[in-house]
Write a structure and sequence with these properties.
heterodimer; A: 81% helix; B: 5 helices
Chain lengths: 441, 145
């Protein structure tokens, strides 16, 4: 039972990298901020986890790991309460930074704690890896469900008791966790993990933004689509036992790249194609991450030392990919918005509606464009709905075609960012194959 | 160690990924999301409405296409160039150029309609008188002037 509570705490700390993605539109409205401002709610957490993890690497051997885990859980719990109570964006970002610091400590320390609770370092590492893989994949779906059932604050309200229970478990455990004998340098495996987590930006962040912001799905509908990712990651788990680590990692990276390419080449605004592509990403994640983690962390060599480096590598990969993907997406969306409006104008001009409806609708559409803040998708349905699109099939058809043209063009503008994410997955093959060569030597 | 079952599962998953991508390409992934804008110099309005309203709209669309052709742009670019915040290039022609392009568009639309006999010529004249001020008003309103 204590093992499960700590493992759930680990899963939540990994899920926190992406858990607020589905809540971004709500946060955007709640704090009346810019897209860049609201994106820091995600980026700040990942940056601080990466920085703190790397800062902890030289210290873990001299620290009391049990107290580091407890301290991390306490900080994570308190910061979650702070996030839930935040009244302005800078406060939320500050608490997210504290959450990140707590997460780095608890994730590093929990490796040793789970090893003590699980009876062996290998078993502890296996539990930690499974919790981390499933947690990272589950993040967006969990956040989406909580956001729609309650609101964005529920995401953090939910985390506090989870961290508290893990903290109780950490205090209840009378095992003496050890950090491992020495330290090892497994650059290739960590580089592979960093690149795989960089690729996950496509599945964890871009796909969620696409289905919620562009396709207009509710957080729960969006969560249903992206839940293909954790379900497939979980489903791939038995397969790891049937494959050598190298083959699992390489095959997983290729499947991840294939899934991301599937998202880049969507032929329509189809949730079925998106879910299938995400399922491939999930299988890739489920195969690659456990295999690379086993290579990166040697239980009998430097468990906590290696584990802490791995935590830093994963989050650094996420941060670097976010830093590269965000400006690319922003640029693509600008040209995509232009194409979207051209397509929508074509539909409006050629649409089968009487001129007495078309002219006022055209003027209302102009007003909607003017009033829409930069970076948001304009509500182009309202002018049609105001003039009876609910009862007039012709007008409804023009409305749906117009919105379809808008969504199609904006969906296309995600293409280059998904392709860049797929490139990260392909690049991960280099370190994965290097791991094999080193192992052979 | 890799088992035969594991290899088979990996091959099946790889094939599934290949099939997914091939299916997407077959369904037009490469052209998906591109605005299918017609050449205003060669295409006819796609509007299919009937009656006086339909004839008026076709005439207005033909006028717009003629003006866009004259300005070496598309109908859609021309309309959006009058809309602030549209993200497209703002008006890049002076009033005299726009007036000349609209007149050329009206002439093209009138000629097109008049080609259908005397009744067509009469209708073209009436439409020209009716539609020209409406287009000028609409573009003026869209431009906020």
């Amino acid at each position: 039972m204590l093992t499960i509570l700590v493992a759930v705490g680990v899963a939540v700390a990994f899920a926190d990298s992406s858990i607020v993605v589905l809540a971004l539109p709500e946060l955007y409205g709640a704090f009346d901020t810019s897209l860049v401002g609201v994106s820091w709610v995600i980026t700040s957490y990942n940056v601080v986890v990466a920085l703190c993890a790397f800062a902890l690497v030289p210290l873990v051997k001299r620290m009391n790991v049990a107290w580091m885990t407890r301290g991390g859980l306490l900080l994570f719990c308190a910061a979650s309460v702070g996030c839930a109570a935040s009244w302005m964006l800078p406060v939320l970002i500050a608490f997210r930074c504290l959450q990140g610091a707590g997460a780095a400590m608890l994730l590093a320390g929990s490796l040793a704690l789970l090893s003590a609770l699980g009876g062996s370092r290998a078993r502890g590492l296996a539990i930690w890896t499974a919790a981390g893989t499933f947690g990272a994949a589950l993040g967006p779906a969990l956040g989406g469900i909580l956001t729609q059932l309650f609101d964005w604050r529920a995401i953090f309200v939910f985390q506090a008791p989870v961290a508290l229970l893990a903290l109780v478990a950490a205090f209840e455990s009378h095992e003496h966790p050890s950090v491992g004998r020495g330290k090892s340098r497994r650059l290739a495996a960590n580089l592979g993990l960093a690149l795989v987590f960089g690729a996950l930006v496509g599945a964890l962040f871009l796909a969620v933004l696409l289905v919620i912001t562009v396709w207009g799905l509710t957080p729960i509908e969006g969560a249903l689509v992206v839940s293909a990712l954790p379900i497939a990651a979980l489903g791939a788990r038995p397969l790891t036992g049937e494959l050598s680590p190298r083959r699992a990692a390489a095959g997983g990276a290729l499947l991840l790249a294939g899934g991301l390419l599937g998202l880049a080449l969507l032929p329509s605004t189809s949730t079925a194609f998106a879910a299938c592509s995400l399922a491939l990403c999930g299988v890739g994640l489920g195969l690659t991450v456990p295999s690379l983690t086993r290579r990166a962390v040697q239980p009998d060599d430097g468990l906590v030392h290696d584990g802490t480096i791995t935590i830093g590598a994963r989050h650094a990969g996420l941060v670097v990919a976010l830093a590269l993907v965000a400006p690319l997406l922003s640029h693509s969306l600008q040209s995509g918005a232009r194409d979207a409006l051209l397509g929508a104008t074509r539909v409006a001009l050629d649409g089968d509606a009487p001129i007495r409806q078309k002219v006022p609708i055209a003027l209302d559409l102009r007003n909607a464009l003017e009033k829409t803040p930069k970076g948001k998708v304009p509500d182009l349905a309202a002018p049609f709905d105001k003039r009876g699109a609910a009862t007039d099939p012709n007008l409804r058809q023009v409305r749906d075609e117009l919105i379809g043209a808008l969504q199609d063009a904006l969906t296309r503008s995600f293409r280059s960012s998904f392709a860049l994410s797929a490139l990260f997955a392909v690049l991960a093959l280099g370190p994965i194959l290097a791991v094999r060569r080193r192992a052979a030597q | 160690m890799t088992t035969r079952r594991g290899t088979l599962a990996l091959v099946v998953l790889g094939a599934a990924a290949a099939v997914l991508i091939a299916l997407e390409l077959a369904l037009g992934a490469l052209s998906f999301g591109q605005p299918q804008l017609a050449d205003p110099c060669t295409s006819k309005p796609a509007f299919s409405g009937g009656g006086l309203d339909g004839a008026t709209q076709r005439f207005a669309l033909e006028t717009l296409a003629g003006a866009a052709c004259e300005l070496h742009t598309t109908r859609e670019e021309l309309v959006l160039s009058f809309v602030p915040n549209a993200g497209t290039e703002r008006i890049r022609w002076d009033q005299a150029t726009i007036d000349a392009a609209l007149k050329a568009g009206l002439d093209r639309a009138a000629q097109d309609t008049a080609g259908k006999g005397f009744a067509g010529q009469a209708l073209a004249y009436a439409l020209r008188e009716l539609v020209a001020p409406s287009i000028a008003w609409f573009l003026g309103t869209a431009n906020g002037t």
